[in-house]
Amino acid sequence: MKVLHLSYSDLGGGAARAAYRNHQALQSIGINSQMLVINKLSTAPTVIGPTEQAQEMLANTARLIIDRLPLRHYPQKTTHVFSPAIFPARELKRIQALNPDVINLHWINKGFLRPESLPKLGKPLVWTMHDIWAVTGGCHYPEGCDRYTSQCGRCPQLGSNQSQDLSRKLWRRKAKAWGNHLNLHIVGVSRWIADCVQRSSLLGNYPVDVIGETLNPEVFCPRPQALARQLLNLNPERRYILFGALNPTRDRRKGFQHLQPALQKLRGLPNTEVLLLGTAHYSSTIDLGFPITCLGKLSDDLALSLAYSAADVVIVPSEEDACPLVSLEALACGVPVVSFDCTGLKDIVRHQINGYRARPFDSDDLAHGIQWILDLDHDQTQQLKTAARQTIETTFAPQHQAAAYKKIYANLLRR
Questions:
Q1: What is the pLDDT along the chain (415 residues), one digit of tens a residue?
Q2: Cα dihedral angle (275, 251, 361, 364), rounded to 10 degrees?
Q3: Burial level of 144, CB count in 10 A (0-12/13-18/19+)?
Q4: Is residue 219 part of a domain?
Q5: Are residues 340 and 387 in the same domain?
Q6: Are residues 167 and 59 both part of a single domain?
Q7: Which terminus in the chain has less CB density within 10 A, N or C?
Q8: How many domains does the chain have?
Q9: Residue 220 falls within a domain, yes or no?
Q10: Are 282 and 379 members of one domain?
Q11: In which domain, by residue range, is 91 found?
């Protein structure tokens, strides 16, 4: 069985890293798996990147500019990612030349593929949905909007009051291109994603399964906290609260606006500091109630595992998230997670077993969850740490994920 994964990148961003781990998991059980990407960051020989680097860099720039041109008509657009997908696909001939048995789609935006490309692929398709762009008129997260269950239009993320706006036009392009005639099986990386697919007006009639993201549990594993802190030049006697996001203070979906008041309520906790992962700087005007250490953007998995292992608790206060890798990576390192009881985090954080799920979006309860974990005695803390690791080994291990995908591929090929 020959599987080809299509993803904009192999390591650049959460969805790309998840796709790459999916590819590695399949290889580990003997499946002939390759990736085709536009933005190759790994050195893996089974990841196929651009043939002409300089030429492709120019093409990438053109892709991004052209793909965003329609958004100029929406000056009230929010800062959230919105993908019109108008750039003609340039990779169809390379895909056809590789001649896979099955194509596994991942994050295919930024000019990689457009809706009209999918029927031309001519192969059975599995679409791993790391967000819900496939079922919307262009947004990747709905921000509480349910217009994707009809035909979009009047898109709040575009700041549009027009029914025939860009979101409605993209919805219609997808409906025309896909209809009900694709040989397609959908994988939602959480029950929340799968529910969005089933409720959608575009792909609600296609089969959908839930398979969570995965990671390498031999890299993301519990490490001695004292050693991790020594290597990161952290105080061995402090208690550390870790929060991670690429744009932690700017991306509202990641919940910094809930984290800040929660931490401020805990201001009196002694001997406690905050670790920011994903950013090298923060504004001196930001008051989190505690001293802050920025760990920067760590792209190396070993360095990430040390950062998690140095922390006492990891906070993931997202309002919407599919299956956030931060939460999986923290649990794999035996570190409890505090989150809200919402979206994909419901599948990962088990209340007062491997972490704490606060009421959405209650900063007081978020603060209570942080303090609850920090106040546990040694034996109770060890129970949480053991349960955290077990969650990964029993539910998110790569061999489980790969076996589930192999079964879906086999069923598609029998149709």
A1: 999 999 999 998 999 999 999 999 999 999 999 999 999 999 999 999 987 666 667 777 777 788 889 999 999 999 899 999 998 777 888 999 999 999 999 999 998 999 999 999 999 999 999 999 999 999 999 999 999 999 999 999 999 999 999 999 999 999 999 998 899 999 999 999 999 999 999 999 999 999 999 999 999 999 999 999 999 999 999 999 999 877 766 788 999 999 999 999 999 899 999 999 988 777 777 899 999 999 998 879 999 999 999 999 999 999 999 999 999 999 999 999 999 999 999 999 999 999 999 999 999 999 999 999 999 999 999 999 999 999 999 999 999 999 999 999 999 999 8
A2: 30
A3: exposed
A4: no
A5: yes
A6: yes
A7: C
A8: 2
A9: no
A10: yes
A11: 2-214+397-414
Q: Write down the H helix ranges in 4-76.
A: 14-28, 53-68
Same domain, 102 and 235: no
255 vs 317: CA distance, rounded Å: 5
Same domain flag for 229 and 315: yes
d(CA 252, CA 234): 29
132 and 232 belong to one structural domain: no
Considering the domain architecture, whether residues 319 and 175 belong to the same structural domain is answered as no
**Any idea which residue has 């809930």 for tokens?**
258
Q: What is the CATH number of the domain that holds 153?
A: 3.40.50.2000
Which residue has 């004292």 as its token pair? 226
Q: Can you tell me the distance from the alpha carbon of 121 to that of 136, in angstroms, rounded to the nearest whole number?
A: 21
> In this structure, are 79 and 195 located in the same domain?
yes
Encoding tokens for residue 278?
């994903």
In a domain, 45, yes or no: yes
CB 252 within 8 A of CB 144: no
Strand order in 102-105's β-sheet?
A: 47-48, 32-39, 2-9, 102-105, 125-129, 184-188, 208-210
239-244: strand order across its sheet: 292-296, 272-277, 239-244, 313-316, 337-340, 355-358
At which residue do the structure tokens 């007062």 appear? Answer: 352
**Residue 35 has what pLDDT?**
99
Sign of CA dihedral 45, 49, 51, 57: negative
Question: Using CA of residue 155, residue 342, residue 131, residue 180, what is the dihedral sign?
Answer: negative
